[in-house]
Amino acid sequence: MESLSTETIDVGQAQSIDDVMQKVAEHKGCGTSGGSGKASCGSGAGENDLPQEIWDKVKNHPCYSEEAHHHYARMHVAVAPACNIQCNYCNRKYDCANESRPGVVSEKLTPEQASKKVLAVASTIPQMTVLGIAGPGDPLANPEKTFKTFELISQTAPDIKLCLSTNGLALPEHVDTIAKYNVDHVTITINMVDPDIGAQIYPWIFWNRKRIFGREAAEILTQHQMRGLEMLTERGILCKVNSVMIPGINDKHLVEVNKAVKSRGAFLHNIMPLISSPEHGTVFGLNGQRGPTAQELKALQDSCEGEMNMMRHCRQCRADAVGLLGEDRSAEFTTDKIMAMEVTYDLESRQAYQAQVEIERQKVAAAKNAELNTLAGEGNEDIKILIAVATKGSGRVNEHFGHAKEFQIYELSTKGAKFIGHRRVDLYCQGGYGEEDSLETIIRAINDCTAVFVAKIGGCPKNDLLKAGIDPVDEFAFEFIEQSAITYFKRYLDKVNSGEMEHKERGDATIRQGAYITA
Amino acid sequence: MTYKIVASQCTSCSACEAECPNVAISEKNGTFVINPKKCTECIGYFDVPQCVAVCPVDDTCVIDTSLPRYQAAGGAA
Q1: At what angle do helices A459-467 and A438-445 cross, to 10 degrees?
Q2: Whole-model pTM over 0.80
Q3: Residue A345: which of A146, A112, A121 has the closest Cα?
Q4: Which among B54, B57, B61 is the top mutation candidate for probing chain A, defined by the most A β-carbons within 10 Å of its own β-carbon?
Q5: How far A82 CA lies from chain B's nearest CA (Å)?
Q6: pLDDT digits 0-9 by tens, A50-81
Q7: How far apart are CA A243 and CA A191, in angstroms?
Q8: What is the number of CB-based contacts under 8 A between chain A and chain B?
Q9: A85-124 b/e with 16+ CB inside 10 Å = b?
Q10: What ipTM was reported for this prediction?
Q11: CATH classification code of B1-62
């Protein structure tokens, strides 16, 4: 009931917001244009693909810009433990520090501890530009703690962007507070717009002092999600929508979700694979509900891409993650360590560091564009291959094969190199499930790739990769990823054209479901 | 009598603390506890005990023993 009252509040700074929203609206068409030779605007968008106002908002945000995620870091603070809905893919009870998935956290923080932690991390990791509150419950089911944290951080570290991630149930009643604290990015997890499907994902919600079950619960949830999304876009707050792809339940339906959120002004859609293993203790983990394969996920993302921007670089991180996406440095910043730290917030040195990051980033873009020009007029438009890249960030091939915890996947075609996702390859945690051979795990995870780019690789894994039909490539060590990839693709095309080898489809790959080792 | 929280099942999510109309719930040694002197089983406030309705782990907020609501309903509330 109380949620209805917020709609009467009028939007103050209408002019500038209208401006931005106009740009958002104009921008939405760009995904469908295709064939321009640019990477699809999506989250992979660069400066030239987006209106300036939107680019300014997302360009240093690793969760909103694929390009930024190679260079900038984020952190989550776990100040919001309570939740107001129950999801079949979530079980908050299980906390293994070596595990990475949403809803899981090692220690809760008070807003004051969180604020200190942000300052400590910002001083240690100058490219940390974004603070998010993502749980481990729902930030808006803990509004006092969430907004107190934002208030403290905006006072001491005004350059850090604030964002939050919510299931949307309590969103309409909090939209104006979100606007008041200058939260400029909000993520809503929307898995359905059909309550019959929702009833298979959400057993119950807590609403109006009651537990509400099944279809009725899903109906209320979807109404609040849609209205919350509309209210945020009206206020010029950029919205990303996360969806969990659950094969057999909402996989086909997510195309409808994509249309519904696009029409309400969502900026970016992030379709993530269900993480589901019996050891997680979730309903889906225990009832054997499987997650999608890599190619199933990619096909769904591709089919939605014509409709709107798709995000493919999400790492489904923990509610207390720290660092670049794909790395987790949270163990360096436990409460004990933070409280013992002497922290001075040095805005100037942070800005100087970030200026260096910008220079590096422009080099990456320039190298890519120069190389892309050499692809013009190659023919063979139908040929697409995937490559896996071992990287520590900065857009370079700079990780040893044996040290890689994940590989970034690029799709190469005559249109260039397009980032399409990542594959986790780390082992199950100690005492966990199965002593798998790590190399076999890696090969299964990148089985759909033609080549793997690494800074260095030993003789044994090299031979095993070749046997599996994956080309191990170390000649681009420390070079820019996209430039190197295009060079490789040109050679590949030459070999196909000269008849030296035949182009073949590589088949599917496995998405890793187990615990994440970060050490 | 009152409700109590089964400590071994409590995830310390704190959801119940904010919902309790009697401010009877607080954190103690990492989990949450209900002050039996303050708990009214929500009788007179809500149709259902709020801690039971919001708790993410079933059978974690449970009745202590023979209390008015329990007797009236003839079973668990």
Answers
A1: 50
A2: no
A3: A121
A4: B54
A5: 4
A6: 667 777 777 777 766 777 777 788 888 889 98
A7: 5
A8: 45
A9: bbbbbbbbbbebbbbbbbbbbbebbebebbbbbbbbbbbe
A10: 0.83
A11: 3.30.70.20
